[in-house]
Amino acid sequence: MALNQVRVILVEPAGPINVGSIARVMKNFGLNHLVLVNPQCKPLSGEALKMAVHAKDILESAVSVTTLPEALQGCTRAIATTARVRHWDSPLENPSTALPWLLEQPQQPAALIFGREDRGLSNEELNYAQRFIRIPTSSNYPSLNLATAVAICCYELAKNDTENQEDTPRENTEIPSEKLSVPFAVPIPASVNESAPLNILEEYYQQLESLLLKIGYLYPHTAASRMETFRQMYNRAQLQTREVAMLRGILRQVEWALENRNNHQGF
């Protein structure tokens, strides 16, 4: 059940052979939801279908979207893969230690994000994730093929999911059809006490940045780096939906106070 909530997200994949191979390894390890962000190839091309072999259903059901935020719609947890060392507080983790975190809320959508074959994910795209993994490789040849990287991560997820099933009594976890959302067949959070979906957090970040620019706490040329710090801080807190609502309420009240002060002063 937990694996069925994980989306494998490919940002601008350029190789149909890679896309087909990824569909195959997803099928091998029990993952079903493939999301393509602005694909630079035809996912149903002959090459892709040939590499997918018996996983053509994964390709046919793959969802194509324009932006990464669209791909993350409804997800409460996201891990991004990167080969770069970044100078920030969020560490680069090993897949075996970080990926089980995606399965801890088995009825909540989660995402595993992979970047482009040639240059990976941009800094802006990495900001949409809460944790980051780097697959350890030999220093003699550290670059991994995209499909190989996906295969390693899928294996780690499947291994952990199997261990969880062996340790947990079986119960009926079928999700009623009325709780499924479109275009992704995943449940909508049923309670404000659930972890906040990433799209709700993103709306808060946008509102926060706008207000901080307005009051002069942020400056346009430093806003991006400062907001990265805020994102890291909130990621560590793992905010619930009701908590994000409270924070947004505070921002709205501050905005109202600023507008009324300006109106009173005749601005």
From TrEMBL:
Main subcellular localisation: cytoplasm
Compartments reported by the entry: Cytoplasm
GO molecular function, one term: tRNA (cytidine(32)/uridine(32)-2'-O)-methyltransferase activity
Keywords: Cytoplasm, Methyltransferase, S-adenosyl-L-methionine, Transferase, tRNA processing
Enzyme class: transferase
EC number(s) on file: 2.1.1.200
InterPro entries, per the entry: Alpha/beta_knot_MTases, RNA_MeTrfase_TrmJ/LasT, SpoU_MeTrfase, tRNA_m1G_MTases_N
Family annotation (Pfam families): SpoU_methylase
Keyword S-adenosyl-L-methionine: yes
SUPFAM superfamilies membership: alpha/beta knot (SSF75217)
tRNA/rRNA methyltransferase SpoU type domain span: 6-155
Record CDD domains: SpoU-like_TrmJ
Catalysed reaction, written as an equation: cytidine(32) in tRNA + S-adenosyl-L-methionine = 2'-O-methylcytidine(32) in tRNA + S-adenosyl-L-homocysteine + H(+); uridine(32) in tRNA + S-adenosyl-L-methionine = 2'-O-methyluridine(32) in tRNA + S-adenosyl-L-homocysteine + H(+)
Signal sequence region: none
A GO-annotated cellular component: cytosol
GO biological process: tRNA nucleoside ribose methylation
Function noted in UniProt: Catalyzes the formation of 2'O-methylated cytidine (Cm32) or 2'O-methylated uridine (Um32) at position 32 in tRNA.
Family affiliation: Belongs to the class IV-like SAM-binding methyltransferase superfamily. RNA methyltransferase TrmH family.
Stored PANTHER family: TRNA (CYTIDINE_URIDINE-2'-O-)-METHYLTRANSFERASE TRMJ, TRNA/RRNA METHYLTRANSFERASE
Subunit-structure text: Homodimer.
Protein name: tRNA (cytidine/uridine-2'-O-)-methyltransferase TrmJ
